[in-house]
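Figure 2 data, in text form.
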Amino acid sequence: MNNFAAQDVDVQDVDVQDVDVVVVGAGQAGLSSAYHLARAGIDHVVLDHAPRPGGAWQFRWPSLTYGKVHGMHALPGMELTGADPLRPSSEVIAEYFAAYEDRFGLRVRRPVDVTAVTAVRDGEDRRLLVESRSGTWSARALINATGTWDRPFWPRYPGQELFRGRQLHTANYPGPAEFAGARVIVVGGGTSAVQHLLEIAEVAAETTWVTRRPPVFREGSFGEAEGRAAVALVEERVRQGLPPRSVVSVTGLPLNEAVRGGLESGVLDRRPMFDHLTRTGATWPDGTRVEADVILWATGFRPAIDHLAPLRLREPGGGIRLDGTRASRDDRIHLVGYGPSASTIGANRAGAAAVREIHRLLTRTPAGVRVSSRLGRA
């Protein structure tokens, strides 16, 4: 039985295209889901806001070569082989995704910016209205695979508006060359912050690493058991309806050769969080000051799910509670690449799981009358 979170509304004078399932997003999570939908023979369409194949990878900085990518897992049914580790990951993975879409005939429409998903009815037929500036689709179920890249998180600290230097986020990181001769403060305790520091330190006049909590470096192997334990910690937050944390936040930072070098050289000597920014840098509670030309906020991302707001899926804790991939407040909605499935291998598995659930939903729920090309208001 469906648990509809939002009151179904009637809509009139809306031209719509009928489909059983809409997939929003064509990154790893969306393509995995589309692959399994196609294999199951379920009528679907994939809507992607990006200008070309590649998901968020196409926007990554040029110095992030394929050989530096952490934990890239192949899409189901097609391995990524023979890639040059020295080529930018944005090129390698975009080409791979494009070839994947072509090989399996995946129906990806782009660029399509989905603006809202609303519960609608046409007589007794309850459906989901997926709206965009490029068209409107009516569906019986939806897989949301929009990831996080479009929602960079910028924390707020006193004095940010006063700082006269440059401020940018990982989402806009151009590579190390632009920081030549600059004094750079990198804020954030994740993998991106470490990668940025190791690159920038080679050309910058000075770098300073700042994090809210002391970084935890992980030694030794990270096997299947450790991976399951990490995912379980993230999954527990999602079950409680809390905003998800990244898997990396509970696994620690891998202590590889480059990181060891950064620790030995002092590049990865970490300072606690500053108290405020000034016109020329940062100041700590004890009065310590660091002058800077650039503040690079490597402070992560948040799930890009604002278009789901009309469905009222959020819990009081601020997150969307999931049962597997299914939203607890509406079993027609599945989130893939959210919380515990926000990794390449996790997205693959979650895509398959979501399609199994949707197949059961479509089988037990009569399709009813297909929504006509015009939805009527009662």
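Caption note: The two ends are 24 Å apart (CA to CA).
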